[in-house]
Design goal:
CATH topology of one domain: Leucine-rich repeat, LRR (right-handed beta-alpha superhelix)
CATH architecture of one domain: Alpha-Beta Horseshoe
Oligomer: single chain
Distance between the termini: 97 Å
Radius of gyration: 30 Å
Strand content: 15-25%
Length: 425
């Protein structure tokens, strides 16, 4: 066969194949396309969306519109819009004139998997008006907007949802939603709103939850004991609410994957419990302004070897800073300010040089620091007016290897007086 004839035949096969693929590719439903146009026009009416994207939106879509293909029991292929990513494409768009979200058909809403609005203060609309028809959502992120109202009961029907982030809006009221159906939920963030009342016990049924953030609201009463069921939880922030008078919850010890816990600004009171043996993976603890009393448990220094941030400031803690805190080699900030602590600060000059002025001890008039520690952390700044210790320094805690296991010997300084000599063992 002549070369030109062969080339012509191959081109013909490619064209026919391409035409067949075009014929097989389903088109977006006209009602769904119209609803998408209306959403885009409400976001930015100055852009001629219909002129710029006159064809099927799933064939040639603007940035932020994502489609996917589905087949029914007859193996008929259909296409639907599965994602409108306003957080990426419409970041800080609603900053001047007040806008609202247009109505969409239920069929269109069910096909949307991700709805994201970030930093749009002029998006002033009730939360129920946004989520009413989006029951198929996998991810709902509304952060830094003018969204108001309460959390509607219909949220409990979002059985596919994996993330609900509603932080920094104007939401208010009690949260009475039963979260028990949301078995796939991994992130629940209601922070920086004006919610009040008791936190729902049903949150304890969110067994897949990795992050729970209720901070900066007006929740009060007792922290639900049911949260102890959250075995997968890694991040817990209940700070700056009005939970009170029930102490630090001991159910924290049931959360083996917990990495950060923040309870600051709640008047929980009581002593710091001995719960740290099962929480060795924690890197951040915020227990400031909680009305805590008693001593700081030495077990925190023994078990929390990955600790990077510890905030215990503005409480009523007393006694010494545990010698075991000298083992917190990864710490980047330790704040013990404004308590009633006393005795020698157990940190070495090497530790002080690493942590610098993030070692905060001012407001504890009974504490003293070694002369070698003061200069390396800018004595007089983060240390306040603490006096210098005039007694000999006590040896640092060490790990003693015995019987194939590590056993911590702390505060175990046997002083033997032999022939007038003082020996530390």
């Amino acid at each position: 066969m002549a070369p030109n004839l062969t080339l012509l035949l191959l081109m013909s096969i490619i064209v026919i194949s391409h035409q067949q693929q075009e014929q097989q590719q389903p088109l977006l439903n006209s009602a769904e396309q119209e609803a998408a146009y209306r959403v885009l026009e409400s976001i930015n009416p100055t852009i001629p969306w219909r002129t710029l994207f006159p064809d099927d939106l799933c064939t040639s879509a603007p940035h932020g519109v994502v489609c996917d293909y589905f087949s029914d029991t007859t193996e008929k292929l259909t296409v639907h819009i599965t994602e409108l990513s306003f957080g990426l494409f419409f970041y800080k768009c609603f900053t001047e004139a007040r806008v609202s979200v247009p109505e969409v058909s239920p069929s269109f809403g069910r096909s949307i998997e991700e709805l994201v609005f970030i930093e749009n203060p002029s998006l002033v609309v009730p939360l129920s008006g946004i989520v009413r028809n989006f029951t198929g959502l996998r991810r709902l992120v509304l952060t830094g907007n003018g969204v108001y109202g309460c959390v509607p009961d219909l949220v409990a029907d979002f059985v596919f949802i994996e993330e609900i982030t509603l932080s920094r809006n104007r939401l208010s009221g009690s949260v009475s939603v039963n979260f028990s159906k949301l078995k796939k939920l991994r992130v629940l963030d209601l922070s920086h709103n004006s919610f009040y009342g008791n936190a729902p016990d049903s949150m304890g049924n969110l067994t897949q939850l990795l992050k729970l953030d209720l901070s900066s609201n007006g929740f009060y009463g007792k922290i639900p004991e049911s949260l102890g069921n959250l075995q997968s939880l890694e991040f817990l922030d209940l700070s700056l609410n009005r939970f009170g008078n029930f102490g630090v919850p001991v159910f924290l010890s049931n959360m083996p994957r917990l990495r950060e816990v923040y309870l600051s600004g709640n008047l929980l009171g009581g002593q710091i419990p001995e719960i740290w043996e099962t929480l060795g993976g924690i890197s951040g603890i915020g227990f400031s302004n909680m009305g805590l009393v008693g001593i700081i448990p030495a077990s925190m220094g023994v078990n929390l070897r990955n600790l990077r941030y510890l905030g215990l400031e503005n409480n009523k803690l007393e006694g010494s800073v545990p010698l075991e805190f000298g083992l917190l080699e990864f710490a980047s900030e330790i704040n013990l300010e404004n308590n009633s602590l006393s005795g020698r600060v157990p940190f070495t000059a090497k530790f002080g040089a690493k942590i610098g002025d993030k070692l905060k001890l001012r407001g504890n008039s009974g504490l003293c620091v070694d002369e070698s520690l003061g200069p390396v952390i800018k004595y007089g700044d983060s240390l306040g007016e603490l006096k210098k210790c005039n007694k000999p320094n006590i040896p640092n805690p060490v790990l003693f290897q015995s019987g194939g296991s590590s056993e911590l010997l702390v505060s175990f300084h046997v002083m033997l007086v032999l022939g007038g000599f003082v020996v530390f063992a």
